[in-house]
């Protein structure tokens, strides 16, 4: 034992190196852990559509049986679309242009909101006739004044295809199929990591949630351990109101919700990426002459170059950016010691923005690649490798 | 349907027996895939589906649906007060287990519940909405879930029906599950 002192310094070196080895192992372990992503956003912003895209891009896509299982949902989408439109025609004092279509209108109203027992040829003929009617189209153009699904036009335009007996939904059809999500679900998938980042594969967990007000109470239960939030915003929503509260503007709700998420002390460790979604619908809306200005008067003073669509999308991004740079001033009321510490520790955070069209697989692939790269860089820089 | 209890928590699924201990005939379990109606008609089906929903954080839908079913079978003298309980639990602004319905259905229901004496059918529209939500979203996922498949196979092996709850260390529950 007496001989040991001269070896001791050597021992310390070994210990130190072992310590480093251990730490590296720890780092690699966290690196090999699944990246946990949480999709958040208001109702109908496109969260579940992103999940479907992940299935197409990173899992096996949709099997034949999964496709045929979508048929009733797609047909129901078609029904709820036309039913909602004709139900709102009297409300907006719009009549049918062609008197011959009155019978079809009565037929559909009689079917009721739940849809027909069976989708027959007669049913589809009536829907087709009505969708041709100029009065119906006029009411459709004012869809922001009532509640209509975003894919109404897409499905009604494809009524002949959807009505066929041997109809098999395409990826595009499935992506546009609207179904309200309730609760929280998880999908898991693997993604190849670019060689430049270290190669191999990376596991992902993606959590999808319902977006309407009642559903949001549940979110907090899955906040822990989340690496990144994908906050999805339906940009084309600027002239619509919430399904769960007809007095609230949808885009304003998204802004309030985003601020809550951004400021949540449970999410300080999570990266936040905002998906400014539904760019295709936004562009269509703006090109049809709609403007965001009546709903967000500040647009009148917004300075940016480009056409109306470009200016609108930049303006919307600006609305969100402003919330991230705003000082944390709300909710001083809860002045617990814990909260104080959190505030002290809160550091400058970055928020990333992407303009997206979640129904476009190509677009989502590109965005996912960017986001993946960003998350990897973030993790590697956290462990001091990159 | 149980009717002995007038509180809203009758159907809370706290102590569900593991069905695999005493497997049901597979013919019966297979019927659950015929339609949501079939599943809900079977008490074992209801319990299993409730368990699935609680893993997905959407158990309130079934609880609401069952509470409304129960309301319909109550003696008339108890209808009004039970209707108010249902409203408070699932639909009021600060409801502890809010169900996800549209503003129009909520408003229609509110008028019926608040004006005079609510009848047995005051929640019909809201109930139909929630039924549709369960059917189109949760139920189709349930049929594809490992949980249902395992039940159907009467699997003896310990299956990994991991709920989302197991991936987050949500203290209280985590402790329960490791016990």
UniProtKB/TrEMBL annotation, chain A:
<comment type="function">
    <text>Guanine nucleotide-binding proteins (G proteins) are involved as modulators or transducers in various transmembrane signaling systems.</text>
</comment>
<dbReference type="InterPro" id="IPR011025">
    <property type="entry name" value="GproteinA_insert"/>
</dbReference>
<feature type="binding site">
    <location>
        <position position="181"/>
    </location>
    <ligand>
        <name>Mg(2+)</name>
    </ligand>
</feature>
<dbReference type="GO" id="GO:0005737">
    <property type="term" value="C:cytoplasm"/>
</dbReference>
<feature type="binding site">
    <location>
        <begin position="150"/>
        <end position="151"/>
    </location>
    <ligand>
        <name>GTP</name>
    </ligand>
</feature>
<comment type="subunit">
    <text>G proteins are composed of 3 units; alpha, beta and gamma. The alpha chain contains the guanine nucleotide binding site.</text>
</comment>
<dbReference type="GO" id="GO:0046872">
    <property type="term" value="F:metal ion binding"/>
</dbReference>
<keyword id="KW-0342">GTP-binding</keyword>
<feature type="binding site">
    <location>
        <position position="358"/>
    </location>
    <ligand>
        <name>GTP</name>
    </ligand>
</feature>
<dbReference type="GO" id="GO:0001664">
    <property type="term" value="F:G protein-coupled receptor binding"/>
</dbReference>
<keyword id="KW-0460">Magnesium</keyword>
<feature type="binding site">
    <location>
        <begin position="277"/>
        <end position="280"/>
    </location>
    <ligand>
        <name>GTP</name>
    </ligand>
</feature>
<dbReference type="GO" id="GO:0005525">
    <property type="term" value="F:GTP binding"/>
</dbReference>
<dbReference type="GO" id="GO:0031683">
    <property type="term" value="F:G-protein beta/gamma-subunit complex binding"/>
</dbReference>
<dbReference type="Pfam" id="PF00503">
    <property type="entry name" value="G-alpha"/>
</dbReference>
<feature type="binding site">
    <location>
        <position position="48"/>
    </location>
    <ligand>
        <name>Mg(2+)</name>
    </ligand>
</feature>
<keyword id="KW-0807">Transducer</keyword>
<dbReference type="GO" id="GO:0005834">
    <property type="term" value="C:heterotrimeric G-protein complex"/>
</dbReference>
<keyword id="KW-0479">Metal-binding</keyword>
<dbReference type="GO" id="GO:0007191">
    <property type="term" value="P:adenylate cyclase-activating dopamine receptor signaling pathway"/>
</dbReference>
<keyword id="KW-0547">Nucleotide-binding</keyword>
<dbReference type="GO" id="GO:0007606">
    <property type="term" value="P:sensory perception of chemical stimulus"/>
</dbReference>
Automatic annotation (TrEMBL), chain B:
<keyword id="KW-0734">Signal transduction inhibitor</keyword>
<dbReference type="GO" id="GO:0008277">
    <property type="term" value="P:regulation of G protein-coupled receptor signaling pathway"/>
</dbReference>
<dbReference type="InterPro" id="IPR044926">
    <property type="entry name" value="RGS_subdomain_2"/>
</dbReference>
<dbReference type="InterPro" id="IPR016137">
    <property type="entry name" value="RGS"/>
</dbReference>
<dbReference type="GO" id="GO:0043005">
    <property type="term" value="C:neuron projection"/>
</dbReference>
<dbReference type="Pfam" id="PF00615">
    <property type="entry name" value="RGS"/>
</dbReference>
<dbReference type="GO" id="GO:0005737">
    <property type="term" value="C:cytoplasm"/>
</dbReference>
<dbReference type="GO" id="GO:0009968">
    <property type="term" value="P:negative regulation of signal transduction"/>
</dbReference>
<feature type="domain" description="RGS">
    <location>
        <begin position="35"/>
        <end position="152"/>
    </location>
</feature>
<dbReference type="InterPro" id="IPR036305">
    <property type="entry name" value="RGS_sf"/>
</dbReference>
<protein>
    <submittedName>
        <fullName>Regulator of G-protein signaling 6</fullName>
    </submittedName>
</protein>
<dbReference type="GO" id="GO:0005096">
    <property type="term" value="F:GTPase activator activity"/>
</dbReference>
<dbReference type="InterPro" id="IPR047016">
    <property type="entry name" value="RGS6/7/9/11"/>
</dbReference>
């Amino acid at each position: 034992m007496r001989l040991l002192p001269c070896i001791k310094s050597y021992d310390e070196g070994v210990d130190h190196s072992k310590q480093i080895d251990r730490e590296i192992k720890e780092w690699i372990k966290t690196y090999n852990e699944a990246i946990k992503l949480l999709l958040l956003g208001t109702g109908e912003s496109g969260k579940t559509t992103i999940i479907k895209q992940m299935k197409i891009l990173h899992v096996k896509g949709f099997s034949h049986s999964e496709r045929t299982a979508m048929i009733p949902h797609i047909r129901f989408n078609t029904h709820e679309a036309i039913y909602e439109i004709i139900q709102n025609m009297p409300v907006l004092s719009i009549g049918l242009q062609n008197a011959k279509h009155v019978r079809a209108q009565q037929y559909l109203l009689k079917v009721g909101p739940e849809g027909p027992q069976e989708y027959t040829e007669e049913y589809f003929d009536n829907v087709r006739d009505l969708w041709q009617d100029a009065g119906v189209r006029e009411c459709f153009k004012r869809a922001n004044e009532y509640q209509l699904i975003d894919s109404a036009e897409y499905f009604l335009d494809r009524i002949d295809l959807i009505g066929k007996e041997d109809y098999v939904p395409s990826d595009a059809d499935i992506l546009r199929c609207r179904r309200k999500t309730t609760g929280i679900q998880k999908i898991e998938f693997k993604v190849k990591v670019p060689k430049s980042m270290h190669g191999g594969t990376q596991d992902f967990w993606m959590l999808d949630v319902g977006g309407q007000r009642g559903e949001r109470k549940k979110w907090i239960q899955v906040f822990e351990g989340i690496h990144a939030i994908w906050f999805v915003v339906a940009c084309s929503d600027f002239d619509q109101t919430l399904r769960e509260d007809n007095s609230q503007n949808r885009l304003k709700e998204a802004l309030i919700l985003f601020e809550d998420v951004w400021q949540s002390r449970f999410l300080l460790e999570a990266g936040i990426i905002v998906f400014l979604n539904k760019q295709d619908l936004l562009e269509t809306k703006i090109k049809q002459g709609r403007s965001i200005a009546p709903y967000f008067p500040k647009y009148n003073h917004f300075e940016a170059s480009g056409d109306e669509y470009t200016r609108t999308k930049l303006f919307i991004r600006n609305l969100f950016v402003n919330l991230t740079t705003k000082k944390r001033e709300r909710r001083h009321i809860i002045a617990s010691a814990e909260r104080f510490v959190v505030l002290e520790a809160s550091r400058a955070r970055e928020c990333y923005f992407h303009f997206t069209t979640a129904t476009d697989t190509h677009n989502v692939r590109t965005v996912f690649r960017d986001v993946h790269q960003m998350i990897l860089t973030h993790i590697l820089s956290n462990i001091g490798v990159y | 349907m149980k009717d002995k209890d007038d509180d809203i928590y009758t159907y809370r699924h706290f102590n569900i027996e593991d069905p695999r201990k005493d497997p049901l005939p597979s013919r019966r379990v297979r019927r659950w895939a015929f339609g949501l109606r079939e599943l809900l008609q079977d008490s074992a089906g209801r319990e299993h589906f409730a368990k699935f929903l609680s893993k997905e954080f959407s158990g309130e839908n079934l609880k609401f649906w069952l509470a409304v079913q129960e309301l319909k079978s109550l003696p008339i003298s108890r209808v009004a007060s039970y209707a108010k309980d249902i409203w408070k639990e699932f639909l009021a602004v600060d409801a502890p287990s809010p169900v996800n319905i549209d503003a129009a259905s909520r408003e229609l229901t509110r008028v019926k519940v608040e004006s005079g004496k609510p009848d047995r059918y005051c929640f019909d529209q809201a109930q139909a909405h929630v039924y549709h939500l369960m059917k189109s979203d949760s139920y189709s996922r349930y049929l594809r879930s490992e949980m249902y498949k395992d039940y159907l196979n009467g699997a003896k092996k310990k299956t990994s029906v991991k709920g989302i709850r197991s991936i987050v260390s949500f203290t209280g529950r985590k402790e329960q599950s490791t016990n």
